[in-house]
Amino acid sequence: MANTREYGRETFGAGGLNDQLDLDSLIDEIGLDRSEIEWRKDFVNFSEDDVRRLGGYQDLFAEHAEEVADEFYENLTAYEETVEVIGRSPKNVDQLKQTQKAYFTTLADGEYGQQYFRDRARIGKLHDMLDMPMKQYIGQYGVYYDLILPLIGDSLADSLTDRVTAAVRENLETDSSEDSNPAAGDVSRSTIESAVEAEVDDKIEDILSILRIINLDMQVVTDTYIHSYSQRLEDEIERNRQLMASVDEELEEPVSDLRSTAEDVAASATTISDAADQQSRKIDEVADEVSNLSATVEEVAATADQVEDSSERAETLTEDGKEAADDAADVMDEIGNAVDGVVTDVDGLQDRIAEIDEFVDAIDAIAEQTNMLALNASIEAARAGEAGEGFAVVADEIKSLAEESQTRAGDIEAMVDDIQADTEETVGSLTDTAEQVDRGIDRVQDAMDNLTDIVEAITETTNGISEVAAATDDQAAAAEEIASMVDDVVAQANRVAEEIDELAAANEQQAAMVTEVEETVTQLSGTQSATDGGTVVTDDLDIVSIPADLPEGMPDFVIEMLSEKQLREIASGKLDPEDVL
Fold first, then answer.
1. How much is the average pLDDT of 163-176?
2. pLDDT tier at 311 (50, 70, 90 boundaries)?
3. pTM of the predicted protein model
4. What domains can be seen in the chain, in order of their start residue?
5. By CB count within 10 A, which of 12, 239, 430, 542 is most buried?
């Protein structure tokens, strides 16, 4: 028989991870004081009779401690998951078996005070420190039942034999002293049945005593795991709180800058709108001047017709009228040159309008890019859940501003298109005028060859030339007015370009702010727990659907422990997470 004290509680707390364990703090935090221990004993009906019964198995447990430890670890090493846990222990399997022998023998050493439960708490915490799942640890007690119950069965066979033998012997001795009894020497069936029943009942009570002490052990182990889960939960909540505080600090300045930048963009858009209005009015004035120029050209054409008629009557006075005709031809050349100059100026105006159109396209492209950034930011905010709702509002405002900028750019582009159409019409009119002037010059040349009435023709030609000169003056004045208008349009275009540069700079700042916000949102989304919905794979490799409305900050390792039904009940508020830990 093995020494009953060969494997004792002195084995606990030696080496391995024990140096990293503050047992006093653990006992205090799980509330395992003397009164709590007594309450638990009373709750499971663990009495002095149980202590007595367990003490009766002290030698039996000590005798089979090595056998139980070997079979216990033979079962553990048969599974990959538990082998991985064992591999994390600084002790080897033989050392772990020593601890297991001590645990097994102390189940029946008869001392179940505070030190006993401190040792159980130590063992449970060490397994938790090795990251052994609770299901594996609790499952080990099933192995214990398989190992302990056969020992009790063998013990029952021995004790039952002894009790039946004693009962038979006692019955025989009693019957032999009664000579008058005809059945003397026979053992009654009831005697044997009573002996068997009494022994079986006694062993059942022994088994119940073992189950009660194991139940108390399991309670302590569960306390240590719940304590660990609670600590992890508190750490996770604190980490989430710190993260959210950090996000708030990081978002405060970028959002403020983003708001300021948005205001700058709005102011720039207003300035562009005012400049566009001014440009529209100037272009209207250009159209009026071009219209007046067209009327003046028509007067020139009418006067040229009169000169042609007078030249026919002055055919006989060709020599004297040639000089006047030469002067008229020179004036017509000047008119042609003036018209060419106007055409050149109008062409320059078209080029400027084209540049404005390019600026408008640039504004539209910037607004479209801003709109895309706002859309991306809205998507990231939606992924962030409730934590990103504030940013989603800002993103929507940016998107609205971008859409408004596109609308305004479209309005300006439409006005530019109208101006281009009017300018092209003006160029066409001026071209026609130039052709008419050329034809007038040709007719004047013809008149030079056909002068007949020198006196009357000279007088009428002089009057016609005077009218041509007056019309030419009006045309020159109109051309100067057009040039002035073009200068104003150019100035306005420059202002538009400056405003576009400012808008571009503001949008670059806005893009930088949006990028910073996106990085913050990415950081937030990268640390989200599984409480935002989806699925998770449990320790049993089952795929469980996760409700989207689980409490915020609930750690993933807790979610993986629970069933889908429990998760739904927690999400609906019917079950408190602490009730299932």
1. 71
2. low
3. 0.47
4. 9-187 (1.10.490.10), 248-525 (1.10.287), 532-580 (no CATH)
5. 430
